[in-house]
Write a structure and sequence with these properties.
By secondary structure, the chain is an alpha/beta fold. The chain has five helices and twelve strands. Helix 3 runs parallel beside helix 4.
Length: about 200
């Protein structure tokens, strides 16, 4: 269960929340929702995203349903530590694209009393744990796994199936390149690609 406030208000440490799941599962939408609530509560909020993610906008984090919030694109996780000083809440989108230092950065921010909310893909298109996300989930106090709806079966989906044969690990894309699939639909699609 996710709780937004701690019981012992004398403890000065922050915490880490991870929102993970497949593509089209609402990760960014949930990140934006939590950050906007913090802004509404007059907390000092900063949002970061990797500078490689330019799908929708250079300086906005935008969900698939067109929800948006201003962000700062950064080339590496180390930049976040410098830019987040004096914040109450730090949001990080597309964490899977950051280097492994993102784990240390998030833990250091939490240890300084900052609430850190991180969103990212938990698995790559091959169904393997993606980048620093497993370590972030392991060190986080709260992990929320969200699911998309499988485009082939209507069941819960937690795989991001790549529709083309590009084997590059990082390939930005949307519905033209990816579709959310359930476990059964994903493995049937992989088998079909191997047979073709």
């Amino acid at each position: 269960m996710f709780l937004e406030n701690t019981v012992n208000h004398k403890e000065q440490f922050g915490w880490i929340e991870v929102i993970c799941g497949s593509m089209f599962s609402g990760k960014t939408e949930e990140l934006i929702r939590r950050l906007k609530r913090a802004q509404f509560a007059k907390q000092k909020v900063e949002i970061f995203k990797p500078s490689v993610d330019t799908r929708y906008h250079d300086e906005l984090v935008i969900s698939h349903d067109a929800n948006e919030i201003r962000s700062t694109p950064v080339p590496a996780a180390a930049n976040i530590s410098i830019l987040a000083q004096g914040c109450d809440v730090v949001g990080i989108d597309e964490a899977q694209f950051f280097d492994d230092e993102i784990v240390t950065v998030c833990n250091n921010l939490a240890n300084q009393g900052i609430r850190v909310i991180v969103a990212g893909l938990d698995m790559d298109f091959k169904g393997n744990p993606f980048g620093p996300m497993p370590a972030l989930m392991a060190t986080a106090e709260y992990v929320t796994k969200v699911h998309a709806v499988c485009t082939r079966t209507g069941n819960l989906a937690h795989f991001s199936f790549r529709k083309n044969n590009n084997e590059k690990l990082v390939m930005l894309g949307e519905t033209e390149e990816y579709e959310p699939l359930s476990r059964g639909a994903y493995y049937r699609a992989i088998q079909k690609n191997q047979d073709d």
